[in-house]
Structure formats: C-alpha cells, structure tokens
Write a structure and sequence with these properties.
single chain; 319 residues; mainly alpha; 69% helix; 0% strand; COG_su2_N; golgi apparatus
C-alpha cells in the first residue's frame, strides 16, 4: 500500500544565518574633547573586540503561541518588537516551522492510512441516513407551518371576538343609559302630573280639567298658609323639577342620534312646557301674595337656568 511523500523542494530546511553585529555608534561632535598638539588618544583593543562580538541567537518561537484562540498574524508579529532577530531570520524560522508541520501531517496520514481507507468504506450507505434525516426535517418544518397557520387563525378569531365584545359592551352601556333616561322621564312626568303620550285617550279635556283642579287646589293651599313659606316651598319644588329636566337634557344630548331619544322629544317638550307653566303660575301667585323681591328674583334664576330669561322677565312684568 502506497504512502504519501513530500517533494524534495519542501523537505529542505534553511539554516538560519548568524546575526550581524550592529554598526558601531558614531561619535557626537559635541562630545569631542579638545586635544593638544602633543596629546593624542586612540581606541583600545578591548573596545574594538567588544564591538565585533555577535549577539546570541534568539530562542525558537514556541508552538503554544500559535495555538491561542483568535490567533492573527498581525497581532502576533506586533508582540515580537523586542525580539533581536532580522526579518530574514524570522522568515526562515517560520518557513522551517511550516515544513515541520507538513512533515508531521504526512507522517500522521501514513501512520493511519488504513484507518482513513476504512473510514471511507464505513461512510458508504450514508445516503439513506441523510435521506431519513432530510425527510424528518421536512416533516417537522411542515408541522411547524401548520402550527403557525393555526396560531394565526386563532389570533384573528380572538381579535374578532374582542371587537364583538367591545361592541356588545358599548350596546349594554347605551341600553343602561336609555333605561335611566326612561326612568327619569317617568319620575318627572309623575311629579309634574304629565301623562305620557301612549296613555292619552279621547278624554284629554277631562284630564286637563283634573290638572286644572289640582292646580287650583294647590293655589288655595298656598293662599291659606303663610305667603313667604309657601313661596319658599314652591321655589324649592320648581328648582328640583328644573334640575331634573336639565339632567335629562344632558343625558339625551349624548345619545341624540338614537331612535329612542328621537321618539322621546315630544315627552321632553311637554315636560318643559308644563314646567314653564307651573313656574309662571307660581310667580303670579307670589306676586299676588306680595312676597319680597328676593324671592321673585329666585323665580328669574330658574327661568334663566331653563334658558328662558326673557320669558321670566315678561312674566314678572305681567306681560
């Protein structure tokens, strides 16, 4: 069985050349001493021998320096600045080391040649294993794609459900607001004794007569009692009714486009007219009872809160 051999050109090693001695330093003209004509000095033989003595050859580069992690030639050469060696000698050293490594690699291959061949034989039939792995990876990627599609579908479904939940919550809030408006309408109609439109019958005249009778009864009660106390009670009642009406208008403004609010505009109008009528009647009764001007001004305050300041001034003047 054949073995590998390096060519003769790569097996030769270069012998490092000895270091050349550095040139002797030149004397500084400023350091020269003045010599007389009869006193001359020369260099001694010992100084000449010391200048010609060659420097010691540096130690070989350790192999461990080349095994450091993240080895870079530039960084390694920068660490050799203190190495007393010429560039040619360094090249020869590195070339010799490269040839030595090539020889070691060749010896390793020759020593394990049979194992290398058997390794190639053992690798035969690996295509089936590779195909099995490839099929498994493809199946896994397909399953991952299916899971990703399912997750995207669930995300879209959850987003749709959240939007529907927001819409339902908004509808619930609107429904609660409408129920509150209906309850306040019924309560204010009961206080003002205003019948809803759906409960009106053909006996509207009799109902109006009953209302007028009740109003006349209240007027008689106010006339029988003390004028100032009756007027104060009437003002408190009218102010409470006016505040309830203003709260109703505030609630309906937020939902003025809703069909239910549009249908209740007639009820709100009847409540407003009834409230203004009661306010005008109570003002006339107060004037008849001869109450003070401060209480009369309180009637005008209620008129102004309802946005009917001019009508209140006309009622006060008896217009």
């Amino acid at each position: 069985m054949s073995k590998f051999y390096l060519p003769d050109s790569t097996a030769t090693t270069a012998t490092p050349s000895p270091l050349t001695s550095p040139p002797s330093p030149k004397s500084n003209p400023l350091d020269r001493k003045s010599y007389s004509s009869h006193n001359y000095s020369t260099y001694s033989d010992s100084d000449s021998d010391a200048d010609n003595t060659p420097l010691p050859f540096p130690a070989a580069l350790p192999r461990s320096d080349f095994l450091t992690p993240n080895f870079t030639p530039e960084a390694y050469l920068s660490t050799l600045s203190n190495r007393h060696q010429t560039l040619e000698d360094l090249r020869s050293d590195l070339r010799q080391r490269s040839q030595l490594l090539s020889k070691e690699l060749l010896d390793l291959v020759n020593a394990n040649y049979e194992e290398f061949l058997s390794l190639g034989l053992r690798l035969k039939g690996g295509e089936e294993k590779i195909e099995e792995v490839r099929v498994g990876v493809l199946g896994f990627s397909r399953e991952v794609g299916n899971v990703r599609d399912a997750v995207a579908e669930k995300v879209q479904e959850v987003g749709t459900l959240l939007e529907e939940k927001k819409r339902i919550r908004k509808d619930v809030m609107v429904g609660r607001r409408l129920l509150e408006i209906e309850e306040r309408l019924e309560d204010l109609e009961a206080r003002l004794m205003v019948e809803p439109a759906n409960s009106l019958s053909a006996n509207n005249t009799s109902a109006n007569d009953d209302d007028s009778d009740s109003d006349s009864d209240e007027d008689e009660d106010y006339e029988d009692g003390d004028g100032d106390s009756a007027t104060s009670a009437t003002l408190a009642r009218l102010r409470k009714h006016a505040q309830a009406y203003l709260l109703l208008t505030h609630l309906t403004q937020k939902l003025h486009h809703h069909p239910f609010i549009t249908a209740q505009q007639s009820r709100l109008l009847r409540i407003r007219n009834t409230l203004l009528l009661d306010l005008r009647t109570s003002l006339k009764q107060a004037q008849t009872a001869g109450v003070g001007g401060k209480q009369l001004l309180n009637f005008l305050v209620i008129y102004r809160e309802l946005g009917e300041g001019e009508e209140g001034a006309g009622a006060l003047k008896g217009v």
